[in-house]
Amino acid sequence: MIRGVISKLGKGGVSLKNYKCFQRQSLTTEWLYPSYKQPGVSFSTSTCCGSKDLELTSVRYNVERGNYSKVTEADIAEFAKIVPNRLVTDADEIAGYNTDWLRIVKGASQVLLKPKTTKEVSAILKHCNNRHLAVVPQGGNTGLVGGSVPVFDEIIISTQLMNNIISLDDLSGTLVCQSGCVLESLDNYVSEKGFIFPLDLGAKGSCHIGGNVSTNAGGLRLLRYGSLHGSVLGVEAVLADGRVIDCLSTLRKDNTGYDMKQMFIGSEGTLGMVTAVSVLCPTRPKACNVAFLGCTNFADVLSTFKSAKGMLGEILSAFEFLDHQCIEVVEQHLDGVKSPLETDYPFYVLIETSGSNAEHDEEKLNQFLESVMSKGTVQDGTVATDMTKIKAIWGLRERIAEALLHDGYCYKYDISLPINKIYDLVEVMRNRLEKTAVRSVGYGHLGDGNLHYNTTSREFNKDLYGQIEPFIFEWTAQHKGSISAEHGMGFMKKNYMRYSKSEGAFDLMTQMKQLMDPNGILNPYKTLPKQY
Amino acid sequence: MSMRVLVGVKRVIDYAVKVRVKPDKMGVVTDGVKHSMNPFDEIAVEEAIRLKEKKIVKEVVAVSCGPTQSQETIRTALAMGCDRGIHVEITGKEYENLQPFHVSKILAKIAKEEDVDMVILGKQAIDGDNNQTGQMTAAVLDWPQATFASEVKKNNGDLTVTREVDGGLETINVKLPAVITTDLRLNEPRYATLPNIMKAKKKPIAKKTVADYDVDISPRQEVLSVEDPPVREAGSKIIGNTV
């Protein structure tokens, strides 16, 4: 069973690089995500942050190195045998892999490996496990909680060259691919056959599907297509000792025993390294409309949401909200991006509909818009039906994170809350930090009860950090929220897991880690607090 | 001022859509493909509305020649701020064979009938890339033309137009009535606001046929074959020192 998959990876795959239709597509989106393109390379020095060299994570957060071996010449020789010519030890070249694009964490790894096959990953991990060498799996390195960046000298295993598409079933829409495929390339690939990838997020131009699955990424289409726990049908992963776990099923239904693939979805590479996935892709909607609306208060945003659910029901594919501070930061820092509305409003709502019949959808959308306008819950707005405008409006929402970085340092929080409480947190925090922070903004996936609260300062400020944490987690726990809705725990949030998880669940997680990675070599210092 | 402006709005395959050649190589696939207003026509609409906002123009009329769905394109123009629309319905084979030569004759007739002082058109449509309709319309009407405009200013009874030409900008004066075609840098088209989208539904669109204008649209040319552009071959890296 295991061998079957490896041989498939070796031969039958379609290399994305040779796939001709991407040229036009990537041109149209490149301008949307310029800074994600080469994580850490193009803007690691001075472009947006103006700060000097980033402090090492281990120094800033006072981390103690685990009891791991150090890489020796003999290890390097062994790696060179496993991944010939795909072993990097040049410090300049590794620099981009040692830090994240947000510039909040920095490691000191000296070895980067770029396997192409599951077999190579297995051989690498087997060696590392025997030698007690710590590793960190890395995809597109677009994470927001420092989960994919080494803390000390962990060996980086990049999925960059594992970018083969293995198969796409025309009938069911099941896509099987290696873990290093870039999300946007996958969406382009399946769209040629009339499907849509069930996941979409701002970093789609560089994030890898393996990383998406490992972090259970949520994103913009979750409202419509659900979480990856549902749409991922199969996972192939390599355990710490090199064993390949083949759960690469393409079946919709499979109740034979424990569903082990779920262990690798959202465990951030601490239980195994994902090497291939199969994903169920729904049929691509033919018609797409985007409306951008202005509201005078948050109660109106909520009432608009209620109307949207009632009147747009099955065609509603995204319901995002952002406050005026988001528009301000985007307009201030990004060229050519501005609100499509002439007047400013305290809150904005972005609604996307996708359906199979453009006329029906438009009629529904018009009825909905007439209703919310006449009720007065929406003051003004615009509707985009051509792709250029649709992209421009989505760009406004998707580029908030990028714009915030231009303030200097960004403190990011990704919180799940009951929908009616969701903006209270922003107001509480804004009052609390009024004197120290440059700005506080709130936006997110309202339809999923997911708030992105961000605050910025000129540079990293320990006092400000202390004012935010753990207060924000305590507040969230009090209001029955989750301290990480979709970003994961990574390095930044791992110590706060108990705010959202019971002792029993936490103990079981620790035992699971013991069982699957007894030496703790997989992505240490992440996800779980304590010794891991 | 009581000037009246006619703008042309063509419905074309959306700029962001990957165009595909039909299996019989006689055209491109349009069924089920997203269409929107030709981007240069959007600029024409925006310019006309700005002239209206400056009180230079009293009324803006949007015209589109094409199938029933062209009315959506006119509706978009009305939502942006045009006052009324004219839809000249041309479908099927006739529409496939429609050329700038035919459209310019129809536009000229409408310009006369509506007694407009100015016709603003996109410099070209992004589907045919002909760049002919504006020039031909001016010729049929025997009006002056100012093509590739990047700035339009009213100057007593004349228009001062800055044109994007090879190697720089050219500024010319044209007497009214005149035909203007828009270039990319003329303006940045607005988003239609919700209240205006609602209002646009009530604005009138006159439905016409080619017969109403007595224009002969029999084909003047025959499509022999439509081909995909050649696939670009992958480049190779040259290793060596840069100078």
From TrEMBL, chain A:
UniProt entry keywords in alphabetical sequence: FAD, Flavoprotein, Oxidoreductase
Keyword flag Flavoprotein: yes
Entry EC no(s): 1.1.99.39
InterPro entries per UniProt: FAD-bd_oxidored_4_C, FAD-bd_PCMH, FAD-bd_PCMH-like_sf, FAD-bd_PCMH_sub1, FAD-bd_PCMH_sub2, FAD-linked_Oxase-like_C, FAD-oxidored/transferase_4, Oxid_FAD_bind_N
GO cellular component, one term: mitochondrion
Role this protein plays: Catalyzes the oxidation of D-2-hydroxyglutarate (D-2-HG) to alpha-ketoglutarate. Also catalyzes the oxidation of other D-2-hydroxyacids, such as D-malate (D-MAL) and D-lactate (D-LAC). Exhibits high activities towards D-2-HG and D-MAL but a very weak activity towards D-LAC.
UniProt name for this protein: D-2-hydroxyglutarate dehydrogenase, mitochondrial
Taxonomic classification: Eukaryota, Metazoa, Spiralia, Lophotrochozoa, Annelida
UniProtKB/TrEMBL annotation, chain B:
Protein's cellular compartments: Mitochondrion matrix
UniProt KW keywords: Electron transport, Mitochondrion, Transport
Residue span(s) of domain Electron transfer flavoprotein alpha/beta-subunit N-terminal: 25-217
GO biological process: amino acid catabolic process; fatty acid beta-oxidation using acyl-CoA dehydrogenase
PROSITE patterns given in the database record: ETF_BETA (PS01065)
Listed InterPro entries: ET-Flavoprotein_bsu_CS (IPR000049), ETF_a/b_N (IPR014730), ETF_b (IPR012255), ETF_beta_N (IPR033948), Rossmann-like_a/b/a_fold (IPR014729)
Gene Ontology CC annotations of this record: mitochondrial matrix
Domain of life: Eukaryota
Gene Ontology MF: a single term: electron transfer activity
Primary role: The electron transfer flavoprotein serves as a specific electron acceptor for several dehydrogenases, including five acyl-CoA dehydrogenases, glutaryl-CoA and sarcosine dehydrogenase. It transfers the electrons to the main mitochondrial respiratory chain via ETF-ubiquinone oxidoreductase (ETF dehydrogenase). Heterodimeric electron transfer flavoprotein that accepts electrons from several mitochondrial dehydrogenases, including acyl-CoA dehydrogenases, glutaryl-CoA and sarcosine dehydrogenase. It transfers the electrons to the main mitochondrial respiratory chain via ETF-ubiquinone oxidoreductase. Required for normal mitochondrial fatty acid oxidation and normal amino acid metabolism. ETFB binds an AMP molecule that probably has a purely structural role.
Family stated for the protein in its record: Belongs to the ETF beta-subunit/FixA family.
Name of the protein in its database record: Electron transfer flavoprotein subunit beta
